[in-house]
Amino acid sequence: MLALYRKYRPKSFAELVGQEQAAEIFRNAARQGKLAHAYVLYGPRGTGKTTVARLIAKLANCLSQDHVKKEGEPCNACAACAEIDAGRAMDVIEIDAASNRGIDEIRDLKESIRVSPSSYTHKVFIVDEAHMLTGAAWNALLKTLEEPPERTIIILATTEYEKIPATIASRAQRFHFKKIPLQTIVLKLKEIAAKEKISVSDDVLEFIAASSDGGLRDAESLLDQVTVLSDAPDIASVEAIVGRAGAKRVIACANAVIAHDVAAALEQIADIQAAGGNIVDLNKELIIYLRRALALRFDPMLESSFKDELTKEELASVKAHSAAIDPQKVIELLKSLIRAYTEMRYSPFPHVPFEVAMIEHLG
Ligand SMILES: Nc1ncnc2c1ncn2[C@@H]1O[C@H](COP(=O)(O)OP(=O)(O)OP(=O)(O)O)[C@@H](O)[C@H]1O
Ligand SMILES: [Mg+2]
Ligand SMILES: [Zn+2]
After folding, report:
1. Percentage of the chain exceeding pLDDT 70
2. Long-range CB contacts (within 8 A, 24+) of 199-203
3. Model pTM?
């Protein structure tokens, strides 16, 4: 069975989510027949860089250029589009710089770049993990970019833009891929779940999205894993996979903290232990949660960035708690929780430092 994240790789810019600005620029360039010789696509994992690189290859080589000029999209019906989608196109060369390191490959690349495309109009080189290239490789690339051969497009994709030499970056069109907002990920997961006839609640999808840190591939993989484990996945099954406490549990802990309710706090700790959950992670999540509530108290503008990272339930709760907390007390508790975190990781009784921190501050 094909993994969901491969099955649902966008075949057009219209299907790409969260990168509207970049998508619009590529479509316009395609309509005007003005693709560049070189691109640098950079940004976090699983946000669409390789996907877009293949879309560019299709724009350049689609046999129905009338369609491309009209729609700014590949036709997805011709032989070239099909071959590129299937990864069988001779003239679209993908190099994983993380595995094919070194001068040799790039020396091959240099020669290969000089050879005209064999069956398509454009030869497209996609260098993934480009930050892994070596000095000699960069020099070879630079020479090519200084006098780019006709009908050649070089696309560098990387998660680490700072490692791309300025001499290279300045000769390419650069596109920053952003983390994908949580609710956008949820919508995409809903769409996939419907198509795959997976029954999964909005709560669970939100939790999956919140655990993926803005990366859609991670979210789709997680959905895959969760549904393999269970026909009707719940929050607990996601918690088990990601080793991360769900929003409800963290909020319950925070409620106990705000209410100075030691018994309730200890109950939450006992509860997650009984459920086989990871107690170190619960502490960590609580730290992150309280830090957000504290920060929001002093900078209300943070709400808009939290919106892209938190579930609706978490955001509402962080806001309420941010208004209710005594900042000085929360700062003290945070310090203890952080100290407890370090102790917990090496302790045979990880719950003890956590409990002591709670009792000390809430008791
Ligand atoms: N912006 C997006 N819109 C729609 N689907 C996406 C997007 N980004 C990622 N995906 C999904 O995740 C999968 C992997 O995306 P892709 O290979 O393009 O990520 P990447 O940015 O190249 O990641 P990496 O840095 O790890 O190489 C796609 O096949 C698709 O299912
Ligand atoms: Mg990639
Ligand atoms: Zn086509």
Report:
1. 98
2. 199/231, 199/232, 200/226, 200/227, 200/232, 200/233, 201/234, 203/235, 203/311, 203/313
3. 0.86
Residues whose beta carbons lie less than 5 angstroms from ion ligand 2: 49-50
Q: What does the pLDDT look like over 95-115, one tens digit per residue? A: 888 876 556 666 777 778 888
Q: Tell me which amino acid residue 107 is.
A: R
Q: Is the CB of 13 under 6 A from ligand 1?
A: no
Task: Tell me, in angstroms, the distance from the centre of ligand 1 to residue 245's CA.
Answer: 26
pLDDT tier, 274 (very low <50, low <70, confident <90, very high otherwise): confident
Ligand with the closest atom to the CA of 52: 1
Q: Among the CATH numbers 3.40.50.720, 1.20.272.10, 1.25.40.10, 3.40.50.10140, which is that of 247-362?
A: 1.20.272.10
**CATH for 4-176, options being 3.40.1030.10, 3.40.50.300, 3.60.21.10, 3.40.1160.10:** 3.40.50.300
Residue 231's pLDDT band (cuts 50, 70, 90): confident
Q: Decide: 159 in ligand 1 pocket, CB within 6 A.
A: yes
